[in-house]
Amino acid sequence: MRFLQGVFSGYINNATAMMAGETPHNRSGWVMAAMTTAGVAGNLVGPLLGGFLSGIFGYRIPFFITGGLMFCVFLSTWLLTIEHFTPIKKEAMKPMKEIMHNLENPPLIIVMFLTTMIVTSSTMSIDPIISLYVRQLMGGHGNIALVAGIVAATPGLGTLIAASKVGHTMDQIGPEKVLRIGIMTAFILFIPMTFTHSPWALAFWRFILGLANAALMPATQTVLTLDVPTEAFGRIFSYNQSFQAAGAVLGSILGSFISGISSYQMVFIITGLTLLINFILVMLVKPKKQIAK
């Protein structure tokens, strides 16, 4: 059932593509940042809501409740959203290879796909070891579950705080500059996280990392919005979501594998190095479009 749920989990990329197509280019940065804010808020509230409901009703009833919430999402999307969409006949629909060939800057799009994968991987590589790393830092004493939960949640809080401001900044100076600054900042922040000896210091640096993360996925999606023709939005953002899913899988495996053969600190080192490689890739591709002023 979880596999089938994943098969039909196309809502996010279609919602992103729809907003990209309906939004003027000079507002794309803010809209993509708002989308990220909504996603982060859901990721923070969802586990809390699930834990609260399961504590009251047991494990089965929350499935019905969350299913009902998803039905409300279906109704609101169907009844309350307006899309200015002109269907493309199957015969006129260009194959993906031709679309990529006709893009002004195909390497930029490919690098954005890789950026989505690496950024997602950098997040997921840390998640599996957070509780274990916090337990090690606390010497196995104290309320480890609570502290680990706080440490895990701090990046999301940072992203919530910074997303709106970052979105407006992208509309002013362009998403490419914001993306480069965000990736380099994230890389630098992994250095103190590697050498920290306190869970509260780790929580602080992860909170700052969340501020930087607010510049990553929205900037990537904004670059795709500005450099891809409207008729290809659906397929491009679907590919982007596939790279995001691949990043989640690779990140989890990477974090678990490295911590198993080396140490928790080494996970932070390797993750930081992947972000440095990502920064180099982004610097190598030169954008040909800028946000309209």
Commentary on this structure:
InterPro entries: MFS, MFS_dom, MFS_trans_sf. With 293 residues, the chain is mainly α. The protein has 13 helices and no strands. The chain is 78% helix and 0% strand. The N and C termini lie far apart (47 Å). Helix 6 packs antiparallel against helix 13. The model has no long low-confidence stretch (mean pLDDT 84).
Brief summary of the model shown:
The chain is an all-alpha fold. It is built from 13 helices and no strands.
Shape: globular
Rg, Å, rounded: 20 Å
C-alpha end-to-end distance: 47 Å
- The helical percent reads over 70%
CATH topology: Growth Hormone, Chain: A
- Poorly predicted regions are none
Kindly estimate the percentage of residues that lie in beta strands according to DSSP.
under 5%
Averaging pLDDT over every residue, what do you get?
84
Keywords summarizing the entry:
single chain; 293 residues; mainly alpha; 78% helix; 0% strand; MFS_dom; transmembrane; transmembrane helix; MFS_trans_sf; Major facilitator superfamily (MFS) profile domain-containing protein
